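[step 3/7] inverse_fold.run input=structure_tokens len=173
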């Protein structure tokens, strides 16, 4: 028959979470235990919080029992030092990875902004090129109209000269 969650189970899970640098919550305790309903864990977690202050004041509450042999203590100290070094390395790695993610996000944002500016510049250049083509076409039409007008003036001038003689204001063609 399966046994339910006991106060000692919740307290041990809370202590482990606290030592790992995490704040014990209902969901974290349940995850730590691998079982338990929120309705069961919640009052036991509250009880753990109520007694935590007193346990912290008691120097022997988290201490090593006096009958632990020295070689075991040395091994435990070594394991603790290695665990702390690994934790620091993990924290350093996470900080580095976070900074790298932030730098990559900033770089992507810069690239996207540059793409947007390039698209705006391309659109402006396309519009300017179209306007230049339209202006060149208008200039060509006006040049053609001017040339036609000049030919008509020359033709009228020749007709007038043929009828009356050379014009005093215009030299003969």
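[step 3/7] decode complete -> sequence:
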């Amino acid at each position: 028959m399966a046994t339910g969650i006991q106060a000692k189970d919740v307290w041990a899970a809370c202590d482990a979470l606290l030592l790992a640098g995490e704040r014990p919550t209902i969901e974290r305790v349940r995850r730590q235990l691998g079982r338990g309903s929120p309705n069961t864990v919640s009052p036991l977690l509250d009880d753990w919080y109520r007694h935590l202050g007193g346990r912290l004041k008691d120097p022997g509450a988290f201490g090593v029992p006096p009958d632990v042999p020295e070689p075991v203590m040395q091994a435990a100290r070594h394991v603790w030092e290695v665990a702390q070094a690994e934790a620091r390395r993990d924290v350093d790695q996470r900080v580095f990875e976070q900074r790298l993610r932030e730098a990559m996000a900033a770089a992507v944002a810069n690239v996207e902004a540059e793409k947007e500016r390039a698209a705006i510049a391309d659109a402006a250049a396309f519009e300017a090129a179209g306007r230049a083509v339209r202006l060149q076409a208008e200039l060509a039409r006006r040049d053609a109209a001017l040339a036609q007008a000049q030919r008509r003036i020359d033709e009228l001038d020749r007709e007038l000269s043929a009828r009356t003689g050379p014009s005093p204001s215009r030299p003969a063609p």
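[step 4/7] annotate
The mean pLDDT is 86.
The helical segments are 7-19, 26-33, 38-57, 70-164.
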